[in-house]
Design a protein that fits this description.
Elements: H1 2-17, E1 20-26, E2 36-45, E3 53-54, E4 62-66, E5 72-73, E6 84-88, E7 93-109, H2 110-119, H3 123-126, E8 134-149, E9 165-169, E10 181-188, E11 191-192, E12 197-204, E13 209-215, E14 221-225, E15 230-241, E16 247-258
Parallel strand pairs: 8-16
Antiparallel strand pairs: 1-2, 2-3, 2-6, 4-5, 4-7, 7-8, 9-10, 10-11, 10-14, 12-13, 12-15, 15-16
Length: 261
């Protein structure tokens, strides 16, 4: 029995670490006030920022800065950028950078689709896949990252962007202490999404990545214990049959830093 449990845990970790992720990563989560900060759009397996690649800014559908007041369009100011968004932090406190990317995939082998649906937590869909040999998936990626300049003031951590699938933090992670729980809520088209799997990754200060999972409650909430200093990412996926493709697949990620005293 002990061997079986260990095997299941290893399999779970393997699946988490081998899932493709899109996420925003700043040069540092704790810049100085007035500092120009670069925020890269990364994609790769799990939360391995060393092996991950950077997505060209030109492939983003939109990008915005939330730093008090109305959101600022970052694409117009970064139209010539290659691999990162340049963000000017004029005020102290929190700021949130968001981005969106869409990707359509076609001619996907039926067995690969079944495997993906099952691996990403949708076994009920994998059992209803049509008999078509090749299928298509529309991917919609919604990305957030939260930075703190000088002090943890502001409510930008809880800003809602209106993306179909959205992660919203209900507490300011930069005000929490070691061992406390951070509450996040998963929204789908503005409503709480219950019983959905969220992946949580922590990259410690020495570069080790720890993956874990959480299942949202009836209010779409998950509870994350901040038990390691480092970079954190929350990731959630939702999949549903579509009209213009076989499936729509939404993926939302949220990154932030945490330093215990």
């Amino acid at each position: 029995m002990k061997y079986l449990i260990c095997s299941l845990l290893l399999t779970c970790s393997f699946n988490l670490l081998n899932a493709q992720s899109y996420y925003l990563m700043p040069g540092g989560f704790f810049p100085e006030k007035g500092q120009m900060t670069d925020v890269g759009v990364f994609y790769g397996k799990g939360f391995d920022t060393v092996k991950a690649k950077k997505l060209p800014v030109s492939q983003l559908a939109d990008a915005s800065l939330y730093a008090g007041g109305k959101p600022i369009n970052l694409l117009s100011a970064n139209k010539d950028a290659e691999s990162h968004l340049s963000v000017q932090l004029n005020n102290s406190g929190l700021c949130m950078v968001t981005a969106k990317k869409e990707l359509s995939e076609s001619e996907i082998d039926r067995e690969d689709v079944i495997r993906q649906l099952s691996d990403e937590g949708f076994p009920e869909l994998s059992g209803k896949v049509s008999d078509k040999e090749e299928m298509s998936i529309n991917n919609i990626f919604a990305l957030k990252t939260l930075l703190m300049a000088a002090k943890p003031s502001g409510n930008e951590y809880s800003e809602k962007t209106g993306h179909d699938l959205e992660l919203v933090l209900l507490q300011n992670p930069y005000k929490l202490k070691y061992g406390e729980d951070l509450t996040a809520q998963i929204l789908f088209k503005g409503k709480p999404l219950a019983k959905i799997r969220a992946e949580v990754y922590t990259k410690t200060l020495n570069g080790t990545v720890f993956p874990s999972e959480s299942i949202s409650d009836e209010d779409g909430k998950i509870y994350i214990k901040l038990n390691r200093s480092g970079d954190w990412m929350i990731k959630v996926i939702n999949i549903a049959p579509a009209e213009k493709a076989d499936y729509n697949r939404w993926c939302s990620t949220y990154t932030f830093g945490f330093r215990s005293e």
